[in-house]
From TrEMBL:
Protein name: Golgi SNAP receptor complex member 1
Annotated membrane topology: Single-pass type IV membrane protein
Segments of this protein annotated with the region Disordered: 28-49
Organism: Rhodinocichla rosea
TM region(s), chain numbering: 219-237
Protein role: Involved in transport from the ER to the Golgi apparatus as well as in intra-Golgi transport. It belongs to a super-family of proteins called t-SNAREs or soluble NSF (N-ethylmaleimide-sensitive factor) attachment protein receptor. May play a protective role against hydrogen peroxide induced cytotoxicity under glutathione depleted conditions in neuronal cells by regulating the intracellular ROS levels via inhibition of p38 MAPK (MAPK11, MAPK12, MAPK13 and MAPK14). Participates in docking and fusion stage of ER to cis-Golgi transport.
GO BP field: endoplasmic reticulum to Golgi vesicle-mediated transport; inter-Golgi cisterna vesicle-mediated transport; protein transport; vesicle fusion
GO CC term, one of those recorded: Golgi membrane
Phylogenetic classification of the source organism: Eukaryota, Metazoa, Chordata, Craniata, Vertebrata
Keyword Oxidoreductase: no
Any one Gene Ontology molecular-function term assigned to this protein's record: SNAP receptor activity
Length: 238
């Protein structure tokens, strides 16, 4: 008798969950279609619609069925653990576990569908609020709206300029650090070469040519960095 009741409740729950899932799907589709139909944002996306009331009613019914099925499973567990059924205990435990798994699957599916529905409704509420703000902004004074738009654009330009300047400063700092590191390495090499030049006079002319080329490379690199910095600043303030 308990198994028959459990199967009946499971069948009812299966039908209810299918209808519940279709309701959530049609709710999302209707809201998407309404957004496409009313592009002027003059109609609110959400109100006290029949779909919302149907959702609440079906959620309550499914929760009641889940509660009844949980009670039936508890009764079957009590019967399985009672004395007098030792020969069928393994089969009964398998059957009870099967019904528990079904209950767990139905409960998980219900909570997942309900959470998805609530997330869609919350998103639509937020979108409706944003559209209302946009509509109130559009209905304001044209001069004030134009002035505000110009201020916003100018603010955005200033932010872009600040960002470009910060990037330029970061590049300059990184270049400075690299140049300092290279200067230290070159000084070390130069000191070693000077020592060698003092020991071997024949190498002195080679050292002088290397020094001249190093100075030339430093001047070229400094000129390139300066020109790049000036171009970046001109582009940022343009």
């Amino acid at each position: 008798d308990l198994r028959k009741q459990a199967r009946q409740l499971e069948n009812e729950l299966d039908l209810k969950l299918v209808s519940f899932s279709k309701l959530c799907t049609s709710y999302s589709s209707s809201r998407d279609g309404r957004r496409d139909r009313y592009s002027s944002d003059t109609t609110p996306l959400l109100n006290g619609s029949s779909q919302d009331r149907m959702f609440e009613t079906m959620a309550v019914e499914i929760e009641q069925l889940l509660g009844k099925l949980t009670g039936i499973n508890d009764k079957m567990a009590e019967y399985t653990n009672s004395a007098g059924v030792p020969s069928l205990n393994a089969a009964l435990m398998h059957t009870l576990q099967r019904h528990r798994d079904i209950l767990q699957d139905y409960t998980h599916e219900f909570h997942k569908t309900k959470a998805n529905f609530l997330a869609i409704r919350e998103r639509e509420n937020l979108l409706g609020s944003v559209r209302k703000d946009i509509e109130s902004y559009k209905s304001g004074s044209g001069v004030n709206n134009r002035r505000t738009e110009l201020f916003l654009k100018e603010h955005e330009h200033l932010r872009n300029s600040d960002r470009l300047i910060e990037e330029t400063i970061s590049i300059a700092m990184a270049t400075k650090e690299n140049m300092t590191s290279q200067r230290g390495m070159l000084k070390s090499i130069q000191s070693k070469m000077n020592t060698l030049a003092n020991r071997f006079p024949a190498v002195n002319s080679l050292i002088q040519r290397i020094n001249l080329r190093k100075r030339r490379d430093s001047l070229i690199l400094g000129s390139v960095i300066g020109v790049c910095t000036i171009l970046l600043l001109l582009y940022a303030f343009h």
